[in-house]
Amino acid sequence: MSELGAGTIYTETVVYSPPEAYVNDVPYQLAIVELGAGRRVTGRIDGERVQIGDRVQFAEYRNNVPFFIKQS
Amino acid sequence: MRPVAVAGIGKTAFGAFPDRDLRSLAVEAGQKALENGHANASQVEAFYLGNFAGPSFTGQNHLAPYISTALGITGVPATRFEAACASSGSAFFHAVSAVAAGLYDIVLVTGVEKMTSQPTPKVTEILAGAGDGCGEVRAGATFPALFAMIARRHMYQYGTTREQLAAVAVKNHQNGAKNPLAHMRKVITMEQAMKGKMIAEPLTVYDCSLISDGAAAVLIMPLERASEFTDKPVRVLGIAQTSDHVALDEKDDITTFRAVKTSAAKAYKMAGVQASDIQFAEVHDCFTIAEIIAIEDLGFVPKGEGGPFSLAGGTCLQGERPVNASGGLKSKGHPVGATGTGQICDVVEQIRGQAGERQVKRNSLGLAQNLGGSGATSVITILGAA
Hints:
The complex is a heterodimer. Chain A contains no helices and 5 strands. By secondary structure, chain A is mainly beta. In chain B, a hairpin with a 4-residue loop joins strand 10 (365-372) and strand 11 (377-385). In chain B, strands 3-2-4-7-1-8-11-10-9 form a 9-stranded mixed β-sheet, with helices on both faces. A two-stranded antiparallel ribbon of chain B has the order 5-6.
């Protein structure tokens, strides 16, 4: 698994009605992150909520899911 | 290619029916379509089934012969088509293609889904199977979440508002309240729609279609034979199915569905019509934002104008271009695999002038738009008086 580096929020949502596997996680923020060169990835946001256009930094993979945090 | 006509339609009510199983719903719709088209099961030369997730929802597989034989249709091809929420639209497309090519004359297409026997988190998980399981779904995307992200981006790029989304829900509930077979025959107010329980920001429960049981069936044949069966044939003037990436993060622009645009262009060309000629439409409002994008992608309004047009009443029953006179997936209900054929039935009823209180005035040229997943499959059908 590679480091994804920094990116920009292309779109996001906060999920309140989860699939069975994530009933204990709600509410959680999901986002599509633009990583540059036309590459996008769908991941989760840890900590502070983000909006379209915000810069985020890759934090870690948990169960193969990339987690990002807002850049201060 | 031979011209193809719809000779019979049949629908069950859409709703939550704890006492009905998948097969009994499909058989009811199929029998109604045969009766409506004055045909016998023994005349049917092929059976096309649209069903998204019968095996996951009910445990039953091998569904097409399971249903066709219960209808008395035996010894002919019986095949299930799966294309997420466009399953029965796809079954219909392939059935029309086979009749047009001369492979068969009399064909029955049935769509069915039985969803309400599972709790909501399980239904949410099964539906998410239509997304990318190695990417977005693993990260926690549900279908409401995917369309919520689409809505956020549409709002960002075009200034679409919560109020414009709510206007779609209010209008579809107004129409659905007039539909005796609709799941939720209830008028809602703008205030209710705006303040509903949050599902995935910015979509509330009133932006989401319903989890329903139901079935809908269509009997088709070559136009030249339709007069043997019905005095109200409706002609398939244009039809197309196209595809795109499954994962939302693989699409260049998520505020438009490329497959809808490409399938609409093909269907318009086949029918020899333009977007401006279409008088009314049943579109795939799995979420309110999907109806706004649909009317843009179909070319009814310029890009970005879907929200303002909806809020101004352009898509109301008495509006410039009625959309989802049936109540749409929002109020009529969304038994996923039955939605495509259900839309065909609703457009046919309008063209025949049999839509009762929800009859549109200009009814000679209608369109059905059936979407699979977050736009990976699109089926467009243009129907007109024969």
